[in-house]
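About this split. The held-out portion is used to measure sequence recovery: a designer receives only the structure tokens and must propose an amino acid at every position. Recovery is the fraction of positions where the proposal matches the reference. Here is one held-out target exactly as it appears in the evaluation file.
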């Protein structure tokens, strides 16, 4: 039995996608990579479709195939692989494929021959992130090879895309610089006679803050799960609803006097007579060790900081002398009735993406 209960409100995912759709005239690709940021690939993909996502996006080819195996028949794009990409299986599964390099193109062309089909390609452009994507100087050579394969009926270019480095700082000069490089590359592609069905650049932050960069398709991820990628100036969190809730139960409570050291190394010492509560979830369950003495949880609506070090399978809370908490009471680590993933991230010096991935990836996969 998992010591943490991770539950996902898939209705919130549907409503979040509806809100993102209302923010754009472009199509929406819900990014469901990394097991939908820990929220469960298949149910999250289904929920995003119900909200109007005409595309789903995944980094790993396996995830695209898993969506198909689960019955998803809409457009799906996968983008992160080397020449070992299982191109034949992806083409047979009617998955759109990103291409960044000649070796990957060669694998896709070979896969198309084996499948007896045509691969739908999205040219991935490195406009300044220096991660996946072809650099502008190498685009012409990639286009030569792509057009040759297209003439043979093995591929057809349907998209061109790139990814922003600083989208979470809407005024950052690199955004316009990358958009300029992107537009230049689009012109170069179209000048070669390629008619692009979808041009796409915007992640969640750019979807919510840069309508001028939506092109034909936006690719929100974190916002789909209800976490605002930037602060909403109106303080409304863009109307997004966090979909993940993480909870545990108190296994034991006990009353102790002032001056008791708590957990390994006694990093916390009770300042007064108090009631301690034991939660049987630790870093093996996804509770970051760095959360000790920093992150908060909620019991019956009240917040308590984790007292002392996080152990492998347990943490201790200082519930206060007047606490009426009992063994069996619920402890909310993340949820509408407790801290947000963003508060956890701020407490331990990371981003909320890592918080939901961590709790989600270590959870018992019960919600599929
Ligand atoms: C992860 C990812 C996204 C989604 O980013 P968010 O910041 O979660 O909205 C979009 N596009 C690509 C290429 C990605 O890797």
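Reference sequence for scoring:
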């Amino acid at each position: 039995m998992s010591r943490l209960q991770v539950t996902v409100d898939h209705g919130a995912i549907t409503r979040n996608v509806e809100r993102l759709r209302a923010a754009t005239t472009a199509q929406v690709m819900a990014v469901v990579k990394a097991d939908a940021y820990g929220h469960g690939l298949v149910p999250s993909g289904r929920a995003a479709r119900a909200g109007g996502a005409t595309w789903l996006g995944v980094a790993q080819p396996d995830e695209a195939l898993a969506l198909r195996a689960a019955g998803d028949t809409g457009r799906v794009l996968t983008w992160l692989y080397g020449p070992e990409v299982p191109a034949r299986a992806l083409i047979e599964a009617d998955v759109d494929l990103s291409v960044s390099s000649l070796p990957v193109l060669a694998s896709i062309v070979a896969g198309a021959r084996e499948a007896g089909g045509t691969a739908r390609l999205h040219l991935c452009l490195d406009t300044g992130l220096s991660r996946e994507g072809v650099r502008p100087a190498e685009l012409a050579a990639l286009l030569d090879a792509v057009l040759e394969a297209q003439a043979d009926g093995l591929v057809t270019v349907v998209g061109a895309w790139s990814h922003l480095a600083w989208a979470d700082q809407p005024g950052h000069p690199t955004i316009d610089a990358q958009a300029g490089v992107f537009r230049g590359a689009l012109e170069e592609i179209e000048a070669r006679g390629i008619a692009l069905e979808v041009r796409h650049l915007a992640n969640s932050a750019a979807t919510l803050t840069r309508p001028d960069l939506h092109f034909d398709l936006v690719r929100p991820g974190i916002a789909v799960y209800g976490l605002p990628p930037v602060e909403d100036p109106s303080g409304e969190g863009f109307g997004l609803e966090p979909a993940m809730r993480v909870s545990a139960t108190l296994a034991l409570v006990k009353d102790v006097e002032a001056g008791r050291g708590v957990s390994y190394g006694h990093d916390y010492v009770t300042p007064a007579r108090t009631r301690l509560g034991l939660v049987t979830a630790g870093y093996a369950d996804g509770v970051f060790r760095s959360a000790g003495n920093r992150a908060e949880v909620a019991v019956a609506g009240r917040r308590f900081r984790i007292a002392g070090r996080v152990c492998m399978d347990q943490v201790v809370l200082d519930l206060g002398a007047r606490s009426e908490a009992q063994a069996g009471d619920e402890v909310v680590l993340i949820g509408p009735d407790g801290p947000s993933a963003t508060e956890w991230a701020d407490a331990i010096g990371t981003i909320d993406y890592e918080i939901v991935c961590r709790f989600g990836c270590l959870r018992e996969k019960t919600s599929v």
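Annotator remark: The chain has a mean pLDDT of 96.
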